[in-house]
Amino acid sequence: MHVPDGxxxxxxxxxxxxVAAAAVGVALxxxxxxxxxxxxxxxxxxxxxxxxxxxxxxPVGAGTSGHLMGGALAAVLVGPWTGILCLSxxxxxxxxxxxxxxxxxxxxxxxxxxxxxxxxxxxxVRGLQAVLPKRVGLVAPLAALGALxxxxxxxxxxxxxxxxxxxxxxxxxxxxxxxxxxxTLIGLGEAVVTGMVVGxxxxxxxxxxxxxxxxxxxxxxxxxxxxxxxxx
Amino acid sequence: MGAGHGxxxxxxxxxxxxxxxxxxxxxxxxxxxxxVVATPADGYPFFxxxxxxxxxxxxxxxxxxxxxLRRMVVEVPFLVFAAVLPxxxxxxxxxxxxxxxxxxxxxxxxxxxxxxxxxxxASLTLAATTEPHDVLRGLExxxxxxxxxxxxxxxxxxxxxxxxxxxxxxxxxASRGFDGRNPRHWPVLARSVGALFIRSYERGERVxxxxxxxxxxxxxx
Lengths: 232, 221
Prior knowledge:
Distance between the termini of chain B: 30 Å
Radius of gyration of chain A: 20 Å
Oligomer: heterodimer
CATH class of chain A: Mainly Alpha
Number of strands of chain B: 2
Strand content of chain B: under 5%
Number of strands of chain A: 2
């Protein structure tokens, strides 16, 4: 899923690199607000988790399998700023230590997978949480919806970048149709997996899920006092 | 498998390429790939020259070429895209092996495949000759924000720990008869991912407490 070297021309790659650097800078400040002095260890461990989660293959059938991209998952679990930070770090490590995704395409990959994926998922989840009833059970379906929408949107942004600095003259309408169709399928898989993962965490530790915290806060504490006086 | 002793791509050695300063290697890699990407898609003599430079670096590093070639499978999905390109691109058509393909698409696909391959090969050479710890030092030297360097450091340090945790979960699943060959097995795998998140997050909290007890004050020194 990572864009390799040579796909987009140098000016486009440099521009996305600058945008990605700015986004990571903003995310660093935002993550410090979300995590305070826990930023380094927690963001580090969550990034490690995202990396490991991408190694789990989900069988699709006919011998093929796919893996999670994790943008929406990270956004829902740890919040948008920490999410962008973690995915960017994962992409950096993959590019430098695993040769996965091009070095010059690193900015493009951070913008597409990190920024667009996380921001779109966050907007979808927060927007719907504002209008829907505040129930913990809704967090997982909303996370799934965020994943479903964020993947095709990221592919559309890629088509936009390709229109500006693509290396081959592919008719844009064909590219748009192919990318949208293919990524809607990927988005469906991502949505099902993200929903199930978030559901399983909300069932055990809802306090760890960033998107569930505001919903949890509205629960009222129920005090039960015994009807009769307990002898001392 | 001990933590911090290289990673899957690292090839232990003592060549000049292994010993070179990591920040210079990083700069060389970025510069090299930028030049490759900026070359026109039909600049074949240049590409041959780039490949020659890479071959010399690999030869000096004494990393066996099959070691690198086996790891180039990461670019297979992208080569599939490059193979499709001549059929969908527009422009004048030509005949290749009895198939009608776009001429400009063919050149662009060739350029893409060559540039992508050169990029992957160059990145693999860096990864094979540089310890993760040294890559981190190089990035620090290149003025990457300190907080980012710390996060990267934690990630590199705990990659094997969390990876091993995942491995134990896989063994536990397999020993209970789970094979995961069917989309019906997704809920089980999803719960594994969920458990992995809770374990990683709680490990992060414990690491933070351990750091606090050793005088950490949150500043990225």
